[in-house]
Amino acid sequence: MRERGSEPEKGQGGQGGQRELEREVLGTGRCTGCGACVNICPYQASYRDRTVTLHACDLSQGRCWAVCPRTPADLQALRQRFGGADLTPELGPFRGLYLTRAADEGIRRRSQHGGTVSALVALALREGWIDAAVLAGKGEGLLPRPVTVRDPEAVAGLAGSRFVVSPTIAEFNRTLGSDATRIGVVATPCQALALAKMRTLSVTDPDRDMAKLGLVVGLFCGWALDWPKLTALLGGKTGLAAITGMDIPPSRYHTLEVYTPAGTLPVSLDEVTPCVREACRSCDDMTAEFSDLSVGSARLPEGWQEARSWNQVIVRTERGLDLLETACSRGVLEFRDVPEGNLERLKAASMGKKRAAAEAAGKTAAAPAPAARQGGRS
Ligand SMILES: Cc1cc2nc3c(=O)[nH]c(=O)nc-3n(C[C@H](O)[C@H](O)[C@H](O)COP(=O)(O)OP(=O)(O)OC[C@H]3O[C@@H](n4cnc5c(N)ncnc54)[C@H](O)[C@@H]3O)c2cc1C
């Protein structure tokens, strides 16, 4: 089947089609389940936490291959194109590190940590920066459900982290073909990379105008969990339907916290680590480097109980900075000083993931080049 506008640009991993995708990604456990290849072609679909092929395609080059975050690409060139002068070896494009939380207590209560992501997305919708936001709500049996929202009031209802991959980019692809004119996406690192690759494709299809991508809010991500393995593990401990949320506190706790109406169930990471999705073991991006700004949990001297209601935010692009400054001036976010050493700890953690990924890929991580500018109000 020939896709409309399916000619990828040379030099961005455009040398394959569905056959190569099957052989090198889908069939080897390297698929992240991000959904980038779904809804650009009727032959790929998302099923539970998997991407599946419904029908064979004999195109030698296809967008499915070109946009996949696990197919080869000149990542350094992509980073240069994305981050320009603000590129750092540890964190990618970097204009500053901030500690924030939603000023609205109602948002904070429903959110994973400080509610920064939900507050920023709602603000972007309210201010007309975007007219649609692609998020990941709660689906059935611990599966996330990607959803497009247009009402800022609906954003907080989709707050919280789902630790199984969401086919968010499949939903973005669907929304790209709708009447939405500026789309925001909340994305894990692999999803943000897929969007960055999509931006490099030549646009010949008016229904797929990537200029509509108005905002990418990245999530820090250590790994996602394999849905069948996670449900087998937790199903042996509690009723899956009773699980209201989960979190992973700092590594010294060595625990996945599972929330139920009866209380918090701590599960040792010794049991959880075998459930990590295979594709995540070779991912080298902890902070969603291809985003306008990236958000994760905070670290504070007062300890985790206080830190868990704040976020660390990396601002990467002009747009990200504008959004954070607007959130500050509108009183949508509260700010506090970033404790000394937080930036260095974040860089060390990020490099740890890069090294682990390089080892998993059977090579040693290249020594980082000297850091570029690390400005901003950190
Ligand atoms: C799989 C996964 C692994 C993570 N690992 C880490 C980590 O190692 N370290 C760290 O500091 N932070 C990690 N995070 C991020 C962290 O859990 C919070 O999302 C982040 O701190 C923002 O908090 P918040 O209160 O601002 O988010 P909220 O305001 O609660 O908003 C969270 C947003 O994330 C979206 N979302 C939820 N699940 C997914 C998903 N699976 N895929 C895409 N979007 C989703 C929701 O739609 C919502 O818009 C991870 C998140 C995920 C989804």
Description:
The protein is 28% helix and 19% strand. The chain has 378 residues and is an alpha+beta fold. The chain folds into 2 domains: 75-224 and 279-360, Aspartate Aminotransferase, domain 2 (3-Layer(aba) Sandwich); 227-275, Nuclear Transport Factor 2, Chain: A, CATH 3.10.450. The strands form 4 sheets. An 8-stranded mixed sheet has the order 7-6-8-9-13-14-5-15, with helices on both faces. It is globular. Bound molecules: flavin-adenine dinucleotide.
Sequence-ordered SSE layout with sheet pairings:
Blueprint: H1 18-24, E1 44-47, E2 50-53, H2 63-67, H3 75-83, E3 87-88, E4 92-93, E5 96-102, H4 105-110, H5 116-126, E6 132-138, E7 144-149, H6 168-176, E8 183-187, H7 189-200, E9 213-219, H8 227-235, E10 245-247, E11 255-260, E12 263-268, H9 269-272, E13 293-297, H10 304-307, E14 311-315, H11 318-329, E15 333-336, H12 342-360
Parallel strand pairs: 6-8, 8-9, 9-13
Antiparallel strand pairs: 1-2, 3-4, 5-14, 5-15, 6-7, 10-11, 11-12, 13-14
Bound molecules: flavin-adenine dinucleotide.
The CATH C-level class name of the largest domain: Alpha Beta
Shape designation: globular
- Order of strands in the sheet with the most strands? 7-6-8-9-13-14-5-15
Alpha-carbon Rg, integer: 20 Å
If helices are DSSP runs of H or I spanning 4 or more residues, what is the number of helices?
A: 12
Question: How would you sum up the major sheet?
Answer: 8 strands, mixed
**SSE topology string:** HEEHHEEEHHEEHEHEHEEEHEHEHEH
Bound molecules: flavin-adenine dinucleotide
Percentage beta strand = 15-25%
pLDDT averaged residue by residue: 91
N- to C-terminal separation?
Answer: 50 Å
- At CATH level 2, the architecture of the largest domain is 3-Layer(aba) Sandwich
Helix content: 25-40%
**Uncertain spans:** 1-13, 364-378
**Subunit organisation of the chains:** single chain
CATH fold name of the largest domain: Aspartate Aminotransferase, domain 2
Structural class: alpha+beta
Instruction: Tally the beta strands.
Output: 15
List the domain count as a whole number.
2
